Structures are given as C-alpha cells and as structure tokens.
Amino acid sequence: MPENDPASPPSIGGDALDAIVISENDNIAVCLRDIDANIEISIRRGQEMFSLAVVDPIPRGHKVAVRQIAEGDKVLKYGEVIGQASKSIGVGNHVHVHNVVD
Amino acid sequence: MFFGYPRSDGSVGVRNRIGIISLMDNCNGLAQKINQNVRGTDLVTDLFGRKLIGRNHEMRLKAIHGMAMNPNLAGVVLISLHSTSTDTFAGPIAAAGKDVECIAFQDECSTWRTVEKGIVAAAKLVRKHSATQRSEQPLSKLIFGVECGGSDFSSGISGNPALGHAADLLMDAGGSVVLSETAEIMGAEHLLAERSVNQDVAAKIVQAIADMEEMSRMGGVEDIRKTNPSADNIKGGLTTLAEKALGAVKKAGTKPLQGVVDYCEPVVPEPPGFYFMSTPAPACESMTGLAAGGAQIIGFNTGLGQPSSHPFSPTIKITGNPHAAARGFDDLDVDVSEIMSGSMTIEEGGQLIYDELLRVANGQYTYTELYETGQSTIGVAGASF
User: CA-CA distance, B298 to A1, in Å (whole number)?
Assistant: First the structure.
C-alpha cells in the first residue's frame, strides 16, 4: 500500500487507459471516463493494449462494442452472457438498454 | 500450504484466539468487560437472544454454534443471564471437541463477580492454548469468504474481478471459496445453475433466490426483479439484471459450484472448491454467516469504503478505486486501483490479493484486526434481504 497523500487523490482513469475488456472473450469494453464521439481510445485486454475508434459518446461506466455484434447475438461481459443484441451493434457503438435486452 | 493451528475436529485455524460470546443482549456489557481485560480474546455480542421464535430462533442457534466452532477459536467463553441458556450452547460445542466455559450472571448475582469469573476463565483458556504452535497445513483446509460492500463504479471493473482471480488461484491450489448475499446474485442464478456440479446443487441455488424473493414479498416488496437494475444502475451503465449480478458473482472466481448451504450452516469443503451460502445482503449479517460457516478469512472489496469486518475471521480490505486507496491508506489492506489507470492487469491485482491472503493465513494482521473494530450481526428472517 503506497503512502498516498489524502489531500490530492489521483483521478480515476490516470493518463493512458480509457476502457477495459474484463474477460478475454468479451465483445464489449467498460469505459473508465466519459468518452466523446468519434475519437480513438486506448483499451486494455489482459496484457494487451489496443486502440479503437469510438462512434458514439459513451459515459463513464458504460459499455462500448469492441467487436461487431449482430442482432440476436449474445453480449458478453465477465466472460458471461449479460443480454442479447436487439439490433445490430457496430464496433465503437454504445452498448446499453437501447440495443440490448435480457 | 500454509502454517495454521490444527483443531481436534480436523479444521485448521489461521488464528489461535478465545471467543467471548454474549448469548443475550442484557449480558453484552459484561462480555465486553471480559474481552477488554484479557489479551488474546475476541468479542461477539448479540442484539436479540431472548424470546425468538421459529426460523429466527433456529438461525440464531446455528449462528452462535457456528461462530463458536470457527477454526480460528481454540476455545470459547459463553456469557448469559442464566445457566439454562449457556448450557444449551455449551453441550454441542464441547461435544464437537472445543473448550468451552460458561458464565451465568444469576449464579453470581453480581456484575463484578460475573466479570471476574469470566476474566479468569478466559485467561486460563488463552494461557492453555497459547502453547499451541502453527504447523504446516494443506490449502484444502482454508475456506475464504468473499464479500463486497460500499460498492461503486470500480467494484465490478477492478476490485471484484481481481478478487475473483485471487479466488481462482486459491481454488487451483486446493482451497475453497464461499460467496454469499442471495439478493445480490438474483439475475445470475441461471448462470450459477449452469456452473453447478449436479442438478441437486443447481436446484438449490435457484431455490435460494426463490425463497429470498418470497421473503421480500412477505415483507411488502412486490417484485424486486422489476425494480432492478434501478434507474441509478442504468444511468451508471448497467444494462441488465444479469450484468448487475455478475459484477458481484465475479468476485468468487470461475470454478464449478460444488454446493449451496443455508444461512450460518457449516460449509463442508468436500470436495474443496466454490460454495454458496444463502445470506442477507448487508455485510455484517453476511460475514456473520461466513464466519459461522467456517471461513477463516474474508476478502472484502469496497469502492466507496466500508468499515466492517468479522471479529473471528480476519477481513482483508481491498479496493480498486484510486480515491478510496488514497483516502483509506490506514484501513485498506490491498490496493488494486492501478487496474483503473492501466498500469496493472486484473490478474496482477488478483495475485496481490492472493499473496496477502497467504500472509494473513500465516499470521499477518489485517488493519481491522489491529483496530478491533469487528462486528457481528445475526440476520433476521423477513426483516431484510
């Protein structure tokens, strides 16, 4: 445990990382900060870092598609099925209640 | 392997303490005085304890017996109003091979004579058992409870996945992991059923959720499924109930589900692996179940900070939130918040937690042990979920 200065807590997200793919096979990443539309973001998946062009604006804590997800496809987070795409979701699109159902 | 204290029932403690257990709320103050005056003792008090009926009566019997039998205790001192109540508990504890002393107020009819008797009884037990030394033990003797509280944005992204990786490392090495908090896994029960080793276990996990939903309906909550994920959850980015539940389930790793036990029932890790205990969701009630089930150590992930720990089961506080890590430097045992800045992988965070788990198993203190801020609360059926 580093001796941190409680007066100046570091900001969530740091400098480099924008989003995380939690399990290797997930087709979404979780954003660690508010992401603007049409920018390149930096994503970690295990040891690997890669960049991805984001299409939609994506709020912190929300999901972005890192693979093409066809209508009816499973949405995978934690390596598990969290829902099904109710419409086709392109890479870089926001993945949420508007395009995913239980 | 680790170095622990072998007990006569075959279990192994990571601590060698004497439990001071108050069996009635009216004796909590006496029990506290005994605990304060004898080094090597840990205190559990009781909020109710009299005139409980039905399911709550049974839950309390199991909770107190289970906590007394926790392998971290070499012996227990029971304090109550009268010997009828101490004897109820002392018989089964002694029969299970654990040293037990009973202190009844009405035998003395005096606060200070009762306290004095308790202090001497506790001191004798501590002194006797302090001669026991740690010895080499297989990790199959270790039961690790996983808990989260004061959850936030970071919990499902960094802290819980890292804790889950530590859980997997422990199970790969032969140990066991217990997940709890029934309401928190609602929505992921079908996935846990799929992960179950057989149909019987699968049916039990589905039934545990159904019982919890029925109990919440009896308590006046019509359909908790409909209100989850909540509007706040959705605003925060959670899309489905399964996603919300998986964020909590993730902290127990990825192994097959070996068994499901009821609240405060012993977890018998045969075979070792992943187990679920049906408990209320608040951390104190849940950890009381884990301690009563035999968990020697609890891993507790928090995003916003949460002070609770169990007095009998050393509780490792973990955070994946950089703000909590910076502010909680005097409270949190493991900081995996660098996962959020990209300089640490989830697996590296899990390894840090696993290393700490082994150190604590071998005797290193957690912060909450040193501060003696542990708290035990036996859940009340129908009052919360």
Answer: 19
Distance (Å, whole) CA A32 – CA A5: 22
Supply angle C-alpha A35, A38, A42, rounded to 5: 55
Domain annotation covers residue A44: yes
DSSP 8-state symbol, B139: G
Q: pLDDT tens digits, residue range A10-49?
A: 444 445 799 999 999 999 999 999 999 999 999 999 989 9
* A29/A22 Cα distance (integer angstroms): 7
Interchain contact, A30 vs B237, CB within 8 Å: yes
Q: Does residue B36 form part of some domain?
A: yes
How crowded is residue A87: how many other Cβ atoms within 10 Å of its Cβ? Answer: 13
Domain count, chain B: 2
- B145 and B120 share one domain: no
pLDDT at B245 over 90: yes
Q: Is A47 on the interface with B (CB under 8 A)?
A: yes
Helix and strand totals (H; E) in chain B = 15, 14
B166 with B224, same domain: the answer is: yes
A83 has a chain B CB within 8 A of its CB: yes
The answer, for A3 touching chain B at a CB cutoff of 8 Å, is: yes
Q: Contact B325/B138 with Cβ under 8 angstroms?
A: no
Query: Residue B219 corresponds to which tokens in the numbers above?
Result: 């308590």
Across-strand partners of A19?
A31, A43
Quick check: B325 and A22 CB within 8 A?
no
